[in-house]
Recover the amino acids of this structure.
């Protein structure tokens, strides 16, 4: 077995309690980050669901030839921002009104002439559902000769934009704060592991070990502890998620990439925390 | 091979630990470093194995000029030295054998060659039978033998010993001292700091005596002294 791996594993066996303590500390620090992540993920999901309803409707002038409209519809679907554009004829509009506006069924039933215009309903791709892009597309729709008027819920889209900005800012600040706390706590834990072995480090150096030789098992060990802590944190987060899902609200869990990112974050903190601790220790001796 | 030229050492907190010390130790010599507590014996050894830098003056060890040596050169220097302390400094959670092997692994020695080399030095110090014992299962004298084996396994040109018998009873002291003499007889230079004047008188070796950081007496340079004058 490789010497570095052996030394790193030996440290677990020699100080099982301290090792378990570091892994637990890392796990709970990352669990807090994970809980915050869950909130963020679900908030984002909720915002996405709301944004589903962003839609631009272009009302058409009566009597526009259907061939022209079909061609235009193809053009609109080819806009980079557009996910789908569907044509709603006057008759379809009326039918829809009848089923949706139950209170006015009688009125609508008695009409002699259909007052509703045909329209093209445009749905944007998820990442373009903000004020700027919606405005932009609406403007382009107005450019078609047979388009009478273009509508979208401007106020509503603006509020949604604002909400997204707030969520992103809060997420960034709170997330960074939690991550910083996790880094500090994990760094302290790792520092303890280094101090506990300072006698051993001194002896290693005395018999001619290079700094690299002293450092490497710590780095591996730190990354390993970070990984174990990260896995435990994901497991704890899943437990919390399962509870919330069962008793409170239907929530979303991390995607696989996000879960991997948490474990990776743990590994990185473990690795660089060890590098910093050992480095600082070696500089002093 | 070890050459001090007008060496001064001042510690940040504390006065001058060494004042204008000069001496030269040749290959294969056995040298006692004596002097009262606080005279600077350990400091001389620390300068030799580059644990501390000299404040001024020149320290040369085995071809290294320590004033110019960089941090990354120190491991190479230490692999040419064997170092032994009063408190043994063994790793408690490794067996005798593993403690000795460790000094080889650290240097990146070929894995296959390690067990044989370890057994050879453990046999040399008379501890082959206790290779599997942990330090806590060994007497002080035996632990010091393990430490000496560890110091020898890299085939150093010099063995530095800082009061190696300081924690041992008389019998163990004699045993360890004899071991150091044998090691010296096979060509390794030995620099031994000690309080034990009986040992010093027993053997016809060179004596360097320090007093409050200054070199008081060097039997290789000065007139031999009569018993009454020595401390
Ligand atoms: N790290 C240090 N910082 C400050 N002063 C120190 C340090 N190490 C040693 N000294 C001082 O240097 C002087 C010499 O110390 P040294 O350890 O070399 O003595 P010694 O001859 O080995 O004594 P002993 O026989 O008690 O081991 C002492 O006055 C001591 O207080
Ligand atoms: Mg001393």
């Amino acid at each position: 077995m490789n010497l570095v791996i052996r030394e790193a594993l030996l440290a677990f066996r020699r100080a099982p309690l301290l090792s378990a303590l570091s892994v637990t500390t890392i796990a709970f620090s990352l669990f807090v980050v994970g809980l915050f992540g869950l909130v963020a993920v679900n908030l984002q999901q909720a915002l996405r669901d709301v944004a589903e309803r962003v839609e631009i409707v272009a009302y058409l002038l009566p009597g526009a030839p259907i061939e022209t409209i079909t061609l235009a519809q193809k053009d609109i679907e080819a806009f980079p921002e557009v996910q789908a554009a569907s044509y709603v004829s006057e008759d379809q509009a009326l039918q829809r009104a009848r089923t949706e506006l139950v209170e006015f069924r009688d009125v609508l039933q008695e009409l002699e002439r259909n007052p509703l215009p045909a329209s093209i309903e445009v749905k944007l791709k998820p990442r373009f559902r903000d004020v700027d892009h919606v405005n932009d597309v609406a403007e382009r729709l107005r450019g078609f000769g047979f388009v009478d008027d273009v509508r979208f819920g401007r106020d509503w889209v603006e509020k949604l934009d604002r909400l997204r900005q707030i969520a992103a800012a809060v997420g960034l600040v709170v997330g960074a704060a939690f991550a910083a706390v996790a880094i500090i706590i994990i760094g302290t834990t790792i520092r303890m592991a280094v101090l506990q072995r300072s006698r051993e480090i001194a002896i290693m150096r005395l018999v001619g070990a290079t700094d690299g030789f002293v450092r490497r098992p710590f780095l591996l060990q730190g990354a390993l502890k970070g990984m174990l802590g990260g896995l435990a944190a994901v497991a704890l987060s899943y437990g919390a998620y399962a509870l919330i899902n069962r008793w409170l609200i239907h929530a979303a869990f991390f995607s696989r990439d996000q879960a991997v990112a948490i474990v990776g974050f743990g590994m990185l903190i473990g690795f660089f925390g060890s590098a910093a601790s050992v480095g600082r220790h070696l500089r002093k001796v | 091979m070890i050459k001090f030229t007008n060496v001064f050492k001042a510690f940040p907190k504390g006065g001058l630990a060494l004042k204008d010390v000069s001496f030269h130790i040749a290959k294969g010599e056995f040298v006692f470093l004596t002097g009262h507590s606080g005279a600077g014996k350990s400091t001389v050894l620390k300068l030799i194995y580059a644990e501390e830098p000299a404040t001024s003056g020149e320290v040369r060890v085995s071809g290294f000029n320590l004033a110019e040596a960089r941090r990354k050169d120190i491991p190479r220097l230490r692999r040419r030295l064997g170092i032994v302390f009063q408190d043994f400094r063994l790793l408690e959670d490794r067996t005798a054998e593993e403690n000795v092997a460790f000094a080889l692994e650290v240097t990146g020695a070929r894995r296959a060659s390690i067990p044989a080399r370890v057994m050879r030095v453990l046999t040399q110090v008379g501890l082959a039978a206790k290779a599997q014992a942990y330090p806590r299962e060994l007497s002080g004298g035996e632990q010091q033998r393990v430490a000496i084996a560890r110091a020898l396994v890299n085939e150093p040109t010099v063995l530095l010993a800082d009061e190696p018998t300081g924690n041992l009873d008389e019998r163990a002291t004699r045993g360890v001292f004899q071991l150091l003499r044998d090691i010296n007889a096979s060509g390794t230079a030995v620099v031994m700091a000690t309080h034990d004047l009986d040992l010093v008188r027993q053997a016809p070796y060179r004596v360097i005596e320090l007093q409050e950081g200054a070199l008081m007496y060097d039997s290789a340079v000065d007139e031999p002294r009569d018993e009454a004058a020595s401390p």
About this structure: Chain A has two domains: 2-49+161-284, 55-151. The CA atoms of residues 243 and 249 of chain A lie 9 Å apart. Residues 2-49+161-284 of chain A form one domain.
